[in-house]
């Protein structure tokens, strides 16, 4: 990705060389992990100038072949995003997770969902402990129970 395809926009905050360098460093990391990245636009915003503890908002838009991924990191209740560098870190960490997931689904390693096997006991012989299970995939399997049959009787009765 070239410099022309990287955009950093400051809103409500004066542009800073240190912040720009940090954002460009994190964009380079995104490029290294996902070479398909075409364009990246980052917005650094400080919406509330009235309060002393300004919560920074970082928005990232990443263009990939056939799709655009977006991350909007709004501050939570813990005041962690009063530091612009923490807000940048959190936003780029979220984008890295999205890019990893995108790469996995577009590079032959789709997310797998393992379905638990389901079946029903079709036959059970109480005396031998042998049984048969029919699965939902139209397969059948035999099994042998390790439990022995129990004699049923009344407690305390004289025989």
TrEMBL record:
Gene3D superfamilies with a match to the protein in the record: Ribosome hibernation promotion factor-like
GO cellular-component term (any): ribosome
SUPFAM superfamilies xrefs: Ribosome binding protein Y (YfiA homologue)
Pfam families linked: Ribosomal_S30AE
Keyword NAD: no
Keyword Transport attributed: no
CDD domains: RaiA
Assigned keywords, A-Z: Ribonucleoprotein, Ribosomal protein
Protein known as: Sigma 54 modulation protein / S30EA ribosomal protein
Organism of origin: Boseongicola aestuarii
């Amino acid at each position: 990705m070239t410099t022309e395809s990287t955009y950093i926009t400051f809103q409500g905050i004066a542009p800073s060389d240190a912040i720009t360098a940090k954002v460009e460093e994190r964009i380079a990391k995104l490029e290294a992990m996902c070479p398909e990245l075409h364009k990246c636009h980052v917005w650094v915003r400080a919406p509330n100038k009235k309060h002393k503890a300004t919560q920074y908002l970082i928005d990232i838009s990443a263009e990939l072949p056939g799709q655009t991924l977006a991350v909007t990191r709004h501050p939570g209740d813990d005041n962690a995003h009063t530091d612009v560098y923490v807000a940048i870190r959190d936003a780029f960490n979220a984008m890295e997770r999205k890019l990893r997931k995108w790469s996995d689904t577009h590079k032959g390693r789709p997310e797998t969902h393992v379905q638990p096997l389901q079946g029903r006991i079709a036959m059970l012989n109480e005396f031998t402990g042998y049984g048969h299970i029919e699965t939902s995939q139209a397969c059948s399997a035999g099994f042998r129970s390790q439990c022995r049959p129990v004699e049923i009787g009344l407690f305390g009765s004289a025989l």
